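Render this sequence as a predicted structure.
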Amino acid sequence: MLDANYFETILPDQVQAMEQPVRLTLHLTTGAEYLIHAVVAAHATYVVLKVHGEGKPHKHTPRWQQAHPKDEAVIFDQVCAPYAVIADAHLTARTTKGDDTRKLGFVS
């Protein structure tokens, strides 16, 4: 079973070893599937992730962006997944059209 160690230690090492851009897809035992943008926090029994939502991404207002120039303009959906429901994590360096705007990153 994947755990906090995977998301905090192993995954960053895997990403570093692969060519960029990389894409991480998380598959849950519920059948849900998420394209991951970033790990927000890995806790003892669950992980919080920034995920790419469906459709056109929402963005912060220009005023907010100007006040926070170091932060991302895109507002990502967030998912909290208990480790027990994570079936697998698929990390690939293969890209498809549009991946350049949906890069994997990490929030520290």
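Summary. Strands lie at 23-28, 33-42, 46-51, 58-59, 74-75, 77-82, 86-92. Residues 4-17 form the longest helix (14 residues).
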